[in-house]
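chain below, 430 aa
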Amino acid sequence: MTKITEKNPNQIFSDQNFPDDWEAVFNTKLLKFPDLFRPDREAAWQLAKQLLMPDRKDESWRWMDYRSLDFDSLDTVTNRVLSLQFQLVELNNDESSANWNDLPNGVIVGSLKNAVKDYPELLSCYLGRSKIASEGKFAALASAMARKGLFIFVPENTQIDDLIKVRINLELGDNIVWTHSIICLSSNAEASIELDWVNNRKSGDGLHNGVLGIFLGENARLHIDERQHFGRTSWNISHATASLEKDAHLVWNTAVFGAKSSKNFIKADLRGKGSNAIIQGIMYPELEQVVNVDTCQNHWETSTTSNLLFKSVAANHGSSIWHGMIHVDPLAQQTDAYQTNNNLILDDSADVKSIPGLEIQADDVKCSHGATVGRIDDEELYYLKARGISEKEAQKLIIQGFFNQVIESFKLESTRESLREMIVEKMERF
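prediction:
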């Protein structure tokens, strides 16, 4: 394996290749899949080997540093490192648990492993449509290696009135855990889903490498809320892609609060005329955490719309990096797309980078982006202190208010309250 040298200043990984024994790990995992799934996995593995390790010449990875992540030390025997906890929640004031028997006929909620066994042809159809392995070396690696993950399928003309909540518990420790999750809504289907990514171990230097594929058929409507609050010593590299057909509608909220270093790719492909995506997120790195979110709004067809809003607060040697890109294909006339990134820096040790981008190849479009980086407004702070509120409490209120627009978009009040508590905990440490 090639180690970092002065001749390789652009490296961000200490090793430029995966460990040799990972090939044997892949072959062992491959034998556990039916023949139907093996060609796609073999293709993903070959792609993972061929693609170069990301380095600083790649703008998406320029500000990341994984040199202290030792692949050789990661345990690949991961039989009991992931568990899924499912809950069906009524969308009313008390958010009580609903009965799983109330789910409409044909709805599937379960693990990827069970889907391979119970619904092989259905799952294979969506895996075959997925191009996520081509997104990069780690997307290809997860596509090849993962046997664990989530599978949700909603058949056409089906509306789920309750929210499907999934708690994804990772026992990272010193393991590398690969996940592959699939969410599919057929034509005219509608659902609300919450994914809660948790690392139950406080110690260890493990890595989660995952991919998530979302497929929305014609006129499908999905509201998805995601929270990632891994432990402070863990690493995360994930790719998530949503594909929207004609008149499909997506609301996608993300909160990234955990991990030592978290690299998240979020992409919406608007492939059908009239499709619409609203993507929102919040980040709060502190205590030397690095959170890097890379978003992409791809418009491939006429009359598509997207609106992105990401907000971050960085404090106490935390680093927040956001890359955004709006791509408009020559065929995507009458596109309406926006992206906004707002950031607060709480002290001089924190670092924020905001990198918006536009790639417009059509002439009848409305596209724009905006980014702000600043500190807590002195006038707001003075106003609150003048009313008897301490400076610390005033700062908490301002930061909660800064995040509130996105937090209020999460479906469950219990989740909104949990996010506010996480923010207060971070402020208490600061």
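The two ends are 40 Å apart (CA to CA). The chain has eight helices and 19 strands.
thats it, cya
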